[in-house]
Amino acid sequence: MTEQKNIDSKRIAELFESYSDYLFNYAITRVNDEPLAEDLVQDTFVAAIKSIKNFKSKSKESTWLTAILKNKIIDHYRKKVNKYHQESIDTLHNTNEYFDERGSWRVDQRPTDWHIGSGHSIDQKEFYEILQQCIGRLKELQRIVFVMKHLDDEDTEDICKELKITTSNYWIIIHRAKLQLRKCLEVKWIEN
User: Fold this and answer.
1) How many Cα atoms occupy the beta-carbon half-sphere of 25 within 13 Å?
2) Of 97, 123, 121, which Cα lies nearest the Cα of 182?
3) Per CATH, is 2-84 categorized as 3.30.70.600?
4) Which of 48-62, 80-94, 172-186 is predicted least confidently?
5) More confident: 53 or 174
6) What's the pLDDT score for residue 41?
7) Are 108 and 192 in contact (CB under 8 A)?
8) Considering only the top CATH level, what class is 92-190?
């Protein structure tokens, strides 16, 4: 029994050495909070320790650990969303900032032409750093929904089920997130 525990402890230490940075980067892009990302990775390894004897190597270790982490992140999202259900989703962000009473774009808020075509080179690293900053500026529920949809490539139906929101609330949230991201990118990336 002790020999098995030593083997499992050694294997977990190797997994931590090999995958902790990867898992942290995965978590930080989804929760935008370093201490929380560290806690989620730590919780992932605690769960891995508890279930390592059940891991049959049918998938890669990184896939197994990422699946555990993804579940930890979704659990975190659920807790956050439950707090938001207490307030009206419609009060999370006022879109009157962008549209007039007829639903048309306000003149000063219309999308601008980014002048990015096939002939323009985009510094991807710079763009993704600014995009990450802009995602971090979203209201938490908007960020959670946007990340699940566009980083994790989750289906709309699954997002609604996981977060216990209606599809109409989902579309309002994702629309508002995209408006905020567009404005942030225009200010931080296009205009600079």
Assistant:
1) 5
2) 97
3) no
4) 80-94
5) 174
6) 95
7) no
8) mainly alpha
Q: How far apart are CA 122 and CA 156, in angstroms?
A: 30
Which structure tokens are listed for 122? 């985009």
State the Cα–Cα distance between residues 63 and 19, nearest whole angstrom.
10
pLDDT tens digits, one per residue of 6-16: 556 787 788 88
52 Cβ contact list (under 8 Å, min separation 6): 8, 11, 12
Q: Residue range 84-107: average pLDDT?
A: 56
What span, in angstroms and rounded, lies between the C-alpha atoms of 54 and 50? 9
3-state secondary structure the chain: CHHHHHHHHHHHHHHHHHHHHHHHHHHHHHHCCHHHHHHHHHHHHHHHHHHHHHCCCCCCHHHHHHHHHHHHHHHHHHHHHHHHCCCCHHHCCCHHHCECCCCCECHHHCCCCCCCCCCCCCCHHHHHHHHHHHHHHCCHHHHHHHHHHHCCCCCHHHHHHHHCCCHHHHHHHHHHHHHHHHHHHHHHHHCC
Q: Mean pLDDT of all residues in the chain?
A: 79
Q: Where are the domains of the chain?
A: 2-84, 92-190
Is the overall model pTM greater than 0.85, yes or no? no
